[in-house]
């Protein structure tokens, strides 16, 4: 993921404009630059890694296909996230049709809880983090992810998730509050031991 | 950074430099030193760090190598210049492709009048293996003035043009599928390497190896022509004398856009390349069924027109359904299966009429 973090925004926007004019190398660069972050975001929705990669291929080919009509886009990352999200949700729904899984609310089929497991070496920490994040509703988790991990603004998160800005603000506020409360107690003891260790 | 000492957990959460350390390990020395110099912040930082990590969730990183590979694949999928790309939405194993071929024997019906049709065409008697247990033969002649669709026992489909005729067993042999025909026809054959599909057109035999191609076998002509659309097709002479003598039969293997001209009398074969694998005037011959957010009713209309089908469906129920797909040389039933799978619909065929029932698309 690191390699995708550090290109200046203005550079990316100019590359995007070149892409829209049919520049294949710009297309390749934009694709490579965003692939890992989009893939990771995709793992929030499904454990089917191949499906994510399929969706990403579709997504970028579609961008190339309609590149001429995309030059108005300045917020590239939110646009890509939003597109992948729609694409994935659509597929997950369709797949549930294939596998005859019936559920009244398709949104609840997304993001199996296991996908939010924290992969940390410290089992205790991992369990605590896992429990903390699992205690949140899915949309709160997603909003938090987009804000803190992907650094999207409220407006950008709203457009990616198809929500009102205020809803995003609420999700974030309650979500982070709840996480902190959940983690607080345990962390104090952990921090205390760290403190002792350093001194 | 100056006020880091007075930061609370919520401040840490919002701090970009701090986030980058937590998520990407940036400036690790700085943060280790800071923790050492600011023991009162340790608790806050730990809590903020854990909160951020729990927000990130499971790390499922994709390697840079794989990203490069994936991007290369995407770039490969881009067509050169202005050709429109398509979005492959089905996985490879969906495609049990199919062989298409067209057989054209125009005037030749006269030639066969009064003769035993199946004896003339089916090689069963000439090979002399199954004389005693010939399967029940079915024959379909298109006496209408339009095209007529015939579904074969293996799921393959044939479009017969006017006056075309096909003869096939009610049930194919286990080791091969043999049909014979005259007239103009278009075949879409289910791929099954274990059970080759053989078309007998007089003295020419065409063996399908899982592909698509066209044959033109005018009986009043001395020549039979065949063009491959995709894949590989094997053509040989149906020469009973040589078979009896266990002599080698000459075979020609054809690849896409290769055309063979077969001489019925001399049994000679001449090949050449052609620009387009089109032999008879059927839309399906060059049809590629490429749909891009095409409304379902238009998709059905295309199938109806191409295959001469009648498809019944509730227009209102499917008004929101669109298809983005590139269908290939699958027999028509497979095409319908694919389409219905995508739009959450079912279909059944009765008396030549396809009825589609759909729950609609959102």
From TrEMBL, chain A:
Database matches in SUPFAM superfamilies: Sigma2 domain of RNA polymerase sigma factors, Sigma3 and sigma4 domains of RNA polymerase sigma factors
Membrane among keywords: no
TM region(s), chain numbering: none
Keywords annotated in UniProt: Sigma factor, Transcription, Transcription regulation
CDD domains in the record: Sigma70_r4
Span of domain RNA polymerase sigma factor 70 region 4 type: 128-179
Residues of the RNA polymerase sigma-70 region domain: 32-96
Record-stated family: Belongs to the sigma-70 factor family. ECF subfamily.
Protein name listed in UniProt: RNA polymerase sigma factor (Sigma-70 family)
Organism: Dyadobacter arcticus
Automatic annotation (TrEMBL), chain B:
Location of the Protein FecR C-terminal domain: 289-354
Entry keyword annotation includes Transmembrane helix: yes
Superkingdom of this protein's organism: Bacteria
UniProt keywords, alphabetically: Membrane, Transmembrane, Transmembrane helix
Residues in FecR protein domain copies: 145-234
Any Pfam family hit: FecR_C
Stretches that traverse the bilayer: 94-112
PANTHER family from the UniProt entry: PERIPLASMIC SIGNAL SENSOR AND SIGMA FACTOR ACTIVATOR FECR-RELATED, PROTEIN FECR
Protein name per the record: Ferric-dicitrate binding protein FerR (Iron transport regulator)
Species whose genome carries this gene: Dyadobacter arcticus
């Amino acid at each position: 993921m690191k390699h995708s973090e550090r290109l200046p925004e203005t550079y990316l926007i100019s590359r995007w404009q070149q892409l829209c004019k049919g520049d294949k190398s710009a297309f390749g660069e934009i694709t490579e630059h965003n692939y890992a972050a989009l893939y990771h975001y995709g793992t929030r929705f499904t454990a089917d890694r191949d499906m994510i990669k399929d969706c990403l291929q579709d997504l970028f080919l579609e961008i190339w296909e309609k590149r001429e009509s995309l030059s108005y886009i300045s917020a590239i990352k939110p646009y890509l996230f939003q597109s992948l999200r729609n694409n994935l949700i659509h597929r997950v729904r369709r797949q549930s049709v294939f596998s005859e899984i019936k559920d009244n609310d398709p949104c609840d089929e997304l993001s199996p809880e296991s996908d939010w497991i924290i992969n940390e070496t410290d089992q205790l920490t991992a369990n605590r983090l896992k429990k903390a994040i699992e205690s949140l509703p899915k949309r709160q988790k997603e909003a938090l992810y987009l804000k803190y991990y992907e650094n999207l603004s409220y407006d950008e998160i709203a457009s990616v998730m198809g929500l009102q800005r205020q809803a995003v603000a609420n999700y974030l506020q309650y979500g982070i509050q709840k996480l902190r409360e959940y983690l607080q107690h345990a962390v104090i003891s952990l921090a205390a031991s760290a403190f002792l260790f350093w001194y | 950074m100056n006020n880091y000492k007075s930061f609370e957990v919520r401040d840490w959460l919002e701090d970009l430099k701090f986030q980058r350390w937590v998520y990407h390990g940036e400036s690790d020395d700085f943060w280790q030193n800071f923790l050492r110099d600011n023991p009162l912040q340790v608790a806050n930082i730990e809590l903020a760090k854990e909160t951020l990590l729990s927000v990130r969730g499971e790390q499922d990183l994709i390697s840079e190598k794989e990203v490069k590979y994936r991007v290369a694949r995407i770039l490969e999928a881009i067509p050169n210049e202005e050709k429109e790309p398509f979005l492959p939405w089905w996985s490879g194993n969906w495609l049990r492709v199919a062989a298409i071929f067209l057989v054209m024997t125009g005037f030749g019906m006269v030639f066969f009048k009064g003769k035993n049709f199946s004896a003339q065409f089916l090689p069963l008697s000439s090979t002399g293996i199954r004389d005693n247990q010939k399967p029940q033969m079915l024959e379909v002649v298109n006496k209408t003035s339009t095209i007529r669709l015939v579904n074969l026992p293996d799921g393959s489909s044939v479009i017969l043009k006017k006056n075309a005729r096909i003869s096939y067993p009610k049930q194919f042999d286990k080791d091969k599928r043999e049909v014979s025909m005259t007239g103009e026809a278009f075949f879409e054959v289910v791929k099954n390497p274990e059970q080759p599909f053989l078309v007998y057109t007089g003295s020419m035999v065409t063996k399908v190896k899982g592909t698509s191609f066209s044959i033109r076998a005018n009986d009043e002509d001395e020549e039979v022509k065949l063009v491959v659309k995709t894949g590989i097709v094997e053509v040989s002479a149906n020469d009973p004398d040589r078979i009896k003598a266990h002599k080698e039969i000459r075979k020609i293997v054809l690849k896409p856009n290769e055309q063979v001209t077969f001489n019925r009398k001399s049994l000679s074969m001449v090949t050449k390349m052609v620009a387009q694998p089109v032999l008879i005037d059927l839309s399906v011959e060059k049809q590629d069924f490429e749909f891009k957010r095409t409304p379902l009713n238009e998709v059905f209309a295309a199938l109806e027109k191409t295959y001469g089908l009648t498809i019944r469906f509730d227009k209102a129920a499917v008004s929101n359904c669109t298809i983005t797909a590139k269908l290939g040389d699958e027999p028509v039933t497979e095409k319908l299966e694919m389409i219905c799978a995508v739009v959450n619909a079912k279909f059944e065929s009765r008396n030549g009429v396809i009825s589609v029932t759909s729950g609609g698309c959102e």
